[in-house]
Amino acid sequence: MTGILAFIVVFGVLVTVHELGHLIVAKRSGIMCPEFAIGMGPKLFSYKFNDTQYTLRLLPIGGYVRMAADDMEVNPLNSGMRIQLKVNDREEITHIILDDKHNFTQIEEVEVVESDIKDKMTVKALRLHDNEEVEYKLAHEAYFVQNSELERIAPRSARFESKSVLARFLTLFAGPAMNFVLAFALFTLLFYINGKPTEDPVVGTVAEETPAEEAGLAEGDRLLSINGTEVDSWDHMSAIIQNEGESELDILVENDGEERTLEMTPMVNTTELPDGETVDQLIIGIGAEMERGTVSPLWWGVQQTYEMGTMIFHLVVDMFISIFEGTFSFDMLNGPVGIYKVTEEVAAQGILTLINFTAILSVNLGIMNLLPIPALDGGRILFVLYEGIFRKPLNKRVEINIQLVGVLFVLMVMILVTWNDIKTFFL
C-alpha cells in the first residue's frame, strides 16, 4: 500500500508541475486553455475557474493541458438545427444556447443554415420569427450553453497558432523547464536538511557492527593513507578499498593533530536492485562529513540538477547509439510498471530517499520530453522552430502525418516497455 501511495504522489507531483508550466506560460501568452487535467480516464473531480476546467481523473498516469487550437475546436452546430442565440448591441453572438436548461431572456430562435467557428467565426441562420436569413458574427467572448454550463468558444486571437513563434516555443518548453525547477527545489531542500558530503576523506558517521566501528574509526577522523597509498579524496578512498579487495587494510588516520594506524577488513555489501539483480560492493561502514550553509545549498542544488541532467542526457544518447549498433535492449527503459516497482523499493528507504528519487525522475522527465519525437514537447518545438526559421508553418497534412507516426511510435514503445517490465518483475 505504501508503494502504491508513493507512486501516485510522485507521479502526481511530476505531472502536475510539468503541466502547470505549460498552463502558466500559455495563459501569460494569451492562449485559452479549456482544460487542465491530472490523470487519465473517467473524471473524478472538476472545478471551473477563468474559462479553464481543472479536472482530476481516475488513472494516476499522465495529464495534459488542452489549449485552444484550430484542430481542437469542435463545432456542435449542424445545418437545420434549431437553437437559441443571445446577441449584444452590435448584433454579435455572445451565447449559443443548445438546450432549454437556461435562464436567459431576450433570445432569438433560429435554424442553423451554416456555421464556421474555426476561421470566419460566423453563424448563418434563419430567424424563425420573421423567416429572414442572417449572418451573425461571434463576439470576442462567446459561449456555448448546454446543461446550464458555459463553454467558451476560443476566439482566433486566443488560439495557439495565432501566437508568435517565441510565445509558442516558451509555452512548449515551459513544461520540461518546470521539471528542472522542481528537481532544483527538491535537491536544494535535501541539501538544507542533510548538508552536502565533503570531498575530503573525513569520517562523518560510523555505522554499527561494521569493520570501521570494530577498528575504532571515529567521527572527525581524516584518512591519510590506505596500505601506504596516500588518500586524496573520498572517491579516491572508495576506489582504493575496491581495488584492495577483501584483504586486511592498514589505514593511517589523523584527528586533532594525532595520527594512529587502524587495521580492518572490508565487508561485502550486497544491494538488490528492483529488477532482482544484485550488486556487490566492498565497504568499511563510514559516511562522509557533511558541509552545511545558508546560501550554499542553493548553488549545490543548481550543480546537482546540472550534473544529473548531464548524466541522464549521456545515457539517452548512448541508448540511441545502441539502437544503431544493434546492442539496444528494452531493459534500458522503464515504463509505468518499472517505475512503480522502483518507487516501491525507494519508498521503503524513507521520505528523504523518496524526495531524492523524485528529483532524479523530474530531471529525467524534463529531458525525455525534450527529445525531438513528434508526440512529445520536443517534437512540437521542432515544428515551431521550423516556422521561425523558414517564416512559414510546415504543411498541415505533413505535420499531422508526422504527429501520427510519432504517437504510434510512442505507444508501441510504451507497450513493449510495459510488457518487458511485467516479465521482469512479475513473471
From TrEMBL:
PROSITE patterns: PDZ (PS50106). Its main location: membrane. The lineage of its organism: Bacteria, Bacillati, Bacillota, Bacilli, Bacillales. It is found in: Cell membrane; Membrane. Belongs to the peptidase M50B family. It is an enzyme of class 3 (hydrolase). InterPro entries: PDZ (IPR001478), PDZ_6 (IPR041489), PDZ_sf (IPR036034), Pept_M50_Zn (IPR004387), Peptidase_M50 (IPR008915). The chain crosses the membrane at residues 6-25, 169-193, 311-334, 346-367, 402-419. It holds the Pfam family Peptidase_M50. Its EC number is 3.4.24.-. Residues 202-240 form the PDZ domain. One of its GO terms (cellular component) is membrane. Its cofactor is Zn(2+). The keyword Transmembrane helix applies. One of its GO terms (biological process) is proteolysis. Keywords: Hydrolase, Membrane, Metal-binding, Metalloprotease, Protease, Transmembrane, Transmembrane helix, Zinc. This is Zinc metalloprotease. GO terms for molecular function: metal ion binding; metalloendopeptidase activity. It is a single-pass membrane protein; Multi-pass membrane protein.
